[in-house]
Amino acid sequence: MATYIQWNSAITKNLLMGSVPGEPVYLSVDEDFVNSTAANYLQDKLEAAPLEDLLFAVRQRCIGTDRKVNLSNCLGRTKQGNCLAVGFLSVMVLAAFEMGKVEGQGTHAYFNNLRRLLGFEAASEEQARPPGMRISQTTALAPEEGLWEDWNYWLKMLAYIPTATPGAGPTRYIRYPISQTLLRGADTHSLRRFFAGGYLSQRI
């Protein structure tokens, strides 16, 4: 099993590989990306499938004994100077990639995807956010927004262009991870049907 810090470092290296300062950086993490990260940037051989190993590491780091998400464990920098939020944010983006594989496309569908990846059961629409990630009644802000802001700030410090942006209204917070999914799972399936149906050749 790789630790959260090991995964965090490996994902960061894979994300920035081939990028140069002045270019936009997307935290576009899907299962293929996780597999390539494990193969190329993790030194230890994993006992489980890479995605399962990553999710276990994130749960170990970010979910307390009270079975609530504790995002304070993902703030700040690693000893290597990397943004500590990358591992958890990667799981948030994975949840966005999964949209389209289950019924529904809105906030409820997204957070139930996230709940599943973090090891929680699905919930009703009113309780969809994972435990510990409820929007504050005092500030009306979601706790994960600080992680996205820290990720954007870290990229700016390295002269990269951050791309994670919030939405408006009810989609404010799920827009952050969705903005990183260059092609979501549902988009990939649609493209496959498009090419399989011969639509491209018919239009050329």
Question: Explain this structure to me?
Answer:
Helices cover 46% and strands 2% of the residues. The chain has 204 residues and is an all-alpha fold. The chain has a two-stranded parallel ribbon. Residues 184-196 and 199-204 have low confidence and may be disordered.
Provide a short characterization of the protein structure.
The chain is mainly α.
Which descriptors apply to this entry?
204 residues; mainly alpha; two-stranded parallel sheet; 46% helix
Give the topology.
Elements: H1 4-16, E1 24-25, H2 31-41, H3 50-62, H4 86-97, H5 107-117, H6 145-157, E2 161-162, H7 175-178, H8 185-196, H9 199-203
Parallel strand pairs: 1-2
